[in-house]
């Protein structure tokens, strides 16, 4: 049985693109970067903690396999999580405007006897955005619940001048890496 330790509708939608239907597990993991922790290590740790917390909930299910993932936007070594409010979303988008940033997405697959992970790093370059464009975008509500305050698959697609890497990874679940992990576990 395959489980996704995430409430993200985007991740479920992406897994459906692989022809995979999953049961969703609601996990509560603190997403706090430790002082001096490299961004990729932080993203990996959070994804692993989600998968592990999910596995604890389904430990009694024979052959349970849990996927945990985390995606973060990184600019100048600052990790941009989900915005706390409109002002925070505006601050993030102003910082990203006209610049290239990294998007790190890590996926962990864990079962009772094994765990494995994959990392996807992409570079996204935004066009220069006016304050009015940012305010209009934030007013749509789309930035909330999204790392870096934007959804590449939504209205923010028009902000992206260039993408080098995984489109699905920027959305929140790198499909190539996820499919490879699932094949390693005999689940795809």
UniProtKB/TrEMBL annotation:
<comment type="function">
    <text>Nucleoside triphosphate pyrophosphatase that hydrolyzes dTTP and UTP. May have a dual role in cell division arrest and in preventing the incorporation of modified nucleotides into cellular nucleic acids.</text>
</comment>
<keyword id="KW-0378">Hydrolase</keyword>
<dbReference type="InterPro" id="IPR029001">
    <property type="entry name" value="ITPase-like_fam"/>
</dbReference>
<feature type="site" description="Important for substrate specificity">
    <location>
        <position position="153"/>
    </location>
</feature>
<comment type="similarity">
    <text>Belongs to the Maf family. YhdE subfamily.</text>
</comment>
<feature type="site" description="Important for substrate specificity">
    <location>
        <position position="10"/>
    </location>
</feature>
<dbReference type="Pfam" id="PF02545">
    <property type="entry name" value="Maf"/>
</dbReference>
<keyword id="KW-0963">Cytoplasm</keyword>
<protein>
    <recommendedName>
        <fullName>dTTP/UTP pyrophosphatase</fullName>
        <ecNumber>3.6.1.9</ecNumber>
    </recommendedName>
</protein>
<feature type="active site" description="Proton acceptor">
    <location>
        <position position="70"/>
    </location>
</feature>
<dbReference type="InterPro" id="IPR003697">
    <property type="entry name" value="Maf-like"/>
</dbReference>
<feature type="site" description="Important for substrate specificity">
    <location>
        <position position="71"/>
    </location>
</feature>
<keyword id="KW-0546">Nucleotide metabolism</keyword>
């Amino acid at each position: 049985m395959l489980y996704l330790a995430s409430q993200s509708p985007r991740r479920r939608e992406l897994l459906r693109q692989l022809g995979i239907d999953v049961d969703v597990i609601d996990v509560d993991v603190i997403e706090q970067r430790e002082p001096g922790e490299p961004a990729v290590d932080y993203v990996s740790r959070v994804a692993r903690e989600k998968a592990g917390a999910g596995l604890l909930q389904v430990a009694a299910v024979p052959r349970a396999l849990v996927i945990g993932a985390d995606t973060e936007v990184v600019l100048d070594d600052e990790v941009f999580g989900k915005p706390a409010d409109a002002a925070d979303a505006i601050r993030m988008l102003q910082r990203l405007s006209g610049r290239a940033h990294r998007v790190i997405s890590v996926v962990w697959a864990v079962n009772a006897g094994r765990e494995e992970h994959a990392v996807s790093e992409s570079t996204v370059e935004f066009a220069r955005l006016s304050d009015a464009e940012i305010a209009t975008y934030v007013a749509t509500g789309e930035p909330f619940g999204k790392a870096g305050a934007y959804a590449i698959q939504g209205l923010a697609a028009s902000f992206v001048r260039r993408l080098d890497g995984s489109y699905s990874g920027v959305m929140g679940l790198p499909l190539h890496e996820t499919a490879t992990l699932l094949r390693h576990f005999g689940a795809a």
